[in-house]
């Protein structure tokens, strides 16, 4: 956000909310305990001195850098692709509304145009509910005709059936002689785009990063962290707990963030604001169609999407 | 998957299924044996002390990082591009079904529309069978007319012939006066997309990452791992086997994963779920066409693609 | 810029303007003070010697490289995508002007064409003002009819309503028999592009890089820098302040740059020159339409965009 | 290839064919000789001891990683883009064949359709011969009319003239009343794609990675390798030759691979299989057109592209 | 270039032309002098020993790797995008020529077609001259009518006005009844592509990589290099000058290359061959239009673009 106030560099060090620190605190605590114990026994386990040093850990840096770097980039790309798809949804529903308003030969305030706009809004909510596995019936009831609500209730791929409805709406206009084949093709082009969006979201939701990667990264990070106290204790003594927890924090926090954002359609703090985007789409389409925008859809003062 | 239960960080350390550990265990065992032997003889081979140290291995880190990083990224891109192509298949077959239902002047429940939908489903299975080199005749027999099945049996590029059949189907509609040139062009645009998908899959399947890369990476990893015990034994003594096996595990496991996913159309654990996607396409197209969806196509409770 | 004079390599070391040095100077000063203090007490805090060495900091290099590298790339991509969107705005408004001049059957100097060109210019300024949250009414008043200015004043998504106006303008031409469906579809294609640009800019403006990343990077960088004097003092003595400030400068300056460019639509020194681009668009469209270009829009000698 | 047999990890260490080892063996031999010499004189040159150690070489790691990583990625992208362009050639020639068969109002087995298909096949071979600077006349003679062969013989941009012929073929159909403007535009869209492919291949073939990069990388790698023995001899003694040759092998082999694949249209072992792809295109188009596919075009058992 | 002779690996070490060595030689000389001086005084400045060692420089490696890696990638992307845009220019002007020859109902050798082809060639040169800020009037005079030359002389955005002329040319054909709306739309699609190319080139030319990055990288590299002798002198003695100059060469040479290629439209050795590409476009379009290609446009034996 452009006008988001820059945070003071000092205060930012102690941010609690919006940090993943709370989630990984227990593990860091355990790591701290172990480090303190290792310092206490001077790196000995029973009688045996564990002979480790930092050089051995440096060799593991290559693997760690590749695993963490890859998983971070792949996860962020999934997050950003999800955001792009929902941005495209805003774009395409607006384009379709503009086409319905100016290319179908219908007056801008006719009920037919409004019913098409409602199909677009219902499509948006249907996609949101499918991705979050929540119940869309409430949104459907306020936007669609009872028959259509009934028909959708049994369907598995609800947004796709709404797309078919839009196709039928255009065909009705064509049969009534208001829309010719060329305009139909232009609208159909944008319906194809909506189909792309549904398919793109389904792809992200249904195909995670291969699980094997996660296991491999996870094991490497944790084994590395829990062996590290033995590697540092000889050279940095009682500073070992501090440095081990510092290193552990960077790795565990990164793993924690990417696990959140690699499934961008969920409801965790760093996931996409699907609710806010859906409401923005509804507000924008209603405004275009000259409708009153319900107050609930107006952005709060600090609302992130405008 | 959004509702996939997050795993406990501790349990995840001991995952067996879905890890590549079983596949590389023999090699790791060998590496362990050698390391133990090296510790036992204190890094001597016969009379000679092997004078290696960690610094020499650090110099190899640059090459290792480039080889592993490159191969990992290139392989994952192949995997993800394969997934995108199959996602596009779902998208485009749905778009074509919508066009057949709403733009061809045919009633939605006419047998002509259904026969077109069946061509699309058969196309999906034909592509799957071509990529996996399996026999498509069973799927063809339940979906296509006997003459077409017979004609396809002799063909080398089966999905392409099915695309031609779709083109002919549209042309028949045009000759019957139901479809005009504009609608034909709009449908043809989506047939071009299907052609893109076939070509894209064939490209991935027929052009692996140049084999020379694999040889170079493979040699570097294994030579590095089997020399490493001599480099560590002087500084970390009897911890050498643990650290060597740890380092070896990270490198060998990564090589093992990327070898699986760089050929994404196979049937190994981390390959794409082409069966599940094909069934989803069939279910979705039948639902759009108002057909009964066979029970076998309904997703199991833990089915990954929805 | 091609003719930008290359700077002498020596002078470039002492550049002040256009560097982020001023912004981070206080922090670097603090870091310098602490370093000098650490050297003075020889790395002791009260009675205790802080036992740190460079090796411990090398282990943190992996995390630092990933965090800084990722944030830098992601921010620059946002910056460059924002620039691409505004470049596309220049491209598409020119294409629409060309279409209005040569495909609508209107003479090139007719008031209708000029009013369309003004809609395009107003659209450009509307987007700029929305992204910077400034008041567009002055620009609207010099470009649009009073009724339209009034209508836009209440609207939340102003550029979108201007797009609808353009659609209506085309439809008017169609109803007057000057434009057929095909030309309408060709113009509509470019209106879709404008819709893409609005949506793309909104996406960048409303969805920052997840805040958690920034916190994680910020903490790692600062904790690293402020611990570093203790790690270096034993080996490089009174050179510690120099090296610590040098390292701190590279990290803090990078963090400072990326924080500027990741919100590319702002008004900080490294943000995009939206004013200059808007004026270039206005000048280019007026020139195409054969209009006199106001002197204020002509580039100054060192104007960056030509 | 999916069914490509996975190689045993142990055997793969000793692969000879398909490795770049033969090409760089002389240089590695020279490096071995020098290393042995350095060990023999204990790092002395005449009377002077060369005082180098591994730490100095670690500092060069950053530059080496950037140079090698960049050149490798840029070269592989060129290789893969070349492959994508030839994949697109397969896709677009198939799409054009489908259009000729089903949208031009000609019976599928008419000589006009076949002559168009032959233009497409000739286009494929013309592009291959242009990229490899070989003589296309033999392929032209078996596919095209004598006049066209004669006309092409003098031309510099042969594939482009064949594209113009295809445009003329379509125009002839339009003048005969079999093709309307819309179908012409749909075919023209695919002809544009073929134009893209020619231009894309010419771009890769005519603009190598700036030569200065290669010189810089080359010098850095070789100077590094030939200085390395002096840096290692003090710490690892008679193991120096082994480690130096190992490090040298990784760098020189990588440079050797990328030099091959950055010009993907050549005829070196790792270049693209343009012959095989051309034959696949010919076979696929003939099959679509219902023609007998010559036996020579059928894939051998281990043929890579299917 | 495919047939470019591979250079012998040994000779390539001593390449002078096409290397950036000459440009940075003075700086490297200065660095050499300083290093020799540091060795001479054994790292002392007046009475004080400068206590630096390689470990402190290793910590700077992270920042250096990020700065150099980023700037190199971003610059090369600009270079390659510029090349892609000029490749697209070749592609689109050819496509438009094909359309003018086969879709406008004009005989291939009519003066109208030739005048359109000349507009395309003039457009190419106009873009080249705009990007290099050179005078296009000579090229305009041999290609365009005197009135148009006069009209363009006063214009600021010359290629854009030529695009408008092309639009007018098509409209003239439509008014004469030779071109229908559909063909007009197909040609208009390619005119949009030309508009994209102009806008893309202007974007690269007018928006450099933020200057702050360059300052930051420049300072880091030079401070690093000039401090390095003090860090190495204790451990490698009189080899210090060699290693310092080697390290300095890699960093300074890279900075020098990227500064050249990040402005790809200039006339430095590694910039794009805009003259050669423009001449290739002219030759290719004239050949397509059946015109005699002037001898000056024929490629010399070693001409890079074919």
From TrEMBL, chains A, B, C, D, E:
Pfam families: Bestrophin_2. It is a multi-pass membrane protein. InterPro entries: YneE/VCCN1/2-like. The chain crosses the membrane at residues 20-40, 52-70, 221-249. PANTHER family: UPF0187 PROTEIN YNEE, VOLTAGE-DEPENDENT ANION CHANNEL-FORMING PROTEIN YNEE. Belongs to the anion channel-forming bestrophin (TC 1.A.46) family. This is Bestrophin. It comes from Rufibacter sediminis.
């Amino acid at each position: 956000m452009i006008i988001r106030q820059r945070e003071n560099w000092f205060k930012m060090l102690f941010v609690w909310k919006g940090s993943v620190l709370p989630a990984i605190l227990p593990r860091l605590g355990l790591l701290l305990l172990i480090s303190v114990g290792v310092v206490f026994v001077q790196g000995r386990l029973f009688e045996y001195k564990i002979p480790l040093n930092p050089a051995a850990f440096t060799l593991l840096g290559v693997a760690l850098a590749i695993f963490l770097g890859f998983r971070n980039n792949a996860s962020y790309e999934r997050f950003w692709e999800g955001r792009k798809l929902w941005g495209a949804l805003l774009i395409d529903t607006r384009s379709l509304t503009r086409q319905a308003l100016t290319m179908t030969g219908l007056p801008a305030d006719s009920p037919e145009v409004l019913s098409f706009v409602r199909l677009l809004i219902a499509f948006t909510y249907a996609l949101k509910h499918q991705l979050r596995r929540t119940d869309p019936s409430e949104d459907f009831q306020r936007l669609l005709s009872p028959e259509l609500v009934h028909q959708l209730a049994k369907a598995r791929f609800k947004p796709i059936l709404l797309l078919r409805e839009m196709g039928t709406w255009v065909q009705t206009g064509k049969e009534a002689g208001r829309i010719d084949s060329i305009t139909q093709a232009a609208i159909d082009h944008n319906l194809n785009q909506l189909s792309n969006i549904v398919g793109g979201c389904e792809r992200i939701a249904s195909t995670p990063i291969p699980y094997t990667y996660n296991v491999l990264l996870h094991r490497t990070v944790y084994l590395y962290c829990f062996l590290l106290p033995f590697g540092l204790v000889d050279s940095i003594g009682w500073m070992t707990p501090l440095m081990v927890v510092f290193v552990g924090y960077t790795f565990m926090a990164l793993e924690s963030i990417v696990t959140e954002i690699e499934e961008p359609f969920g409801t965790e703090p760093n996931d996409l604001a699907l609710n806010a985007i859906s409401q923005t789409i509804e507000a924008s389409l209603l405004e275009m169609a000259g409708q009153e925008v319900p107050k609930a859809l107006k952005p709060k003062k600090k609302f992130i999407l405008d």
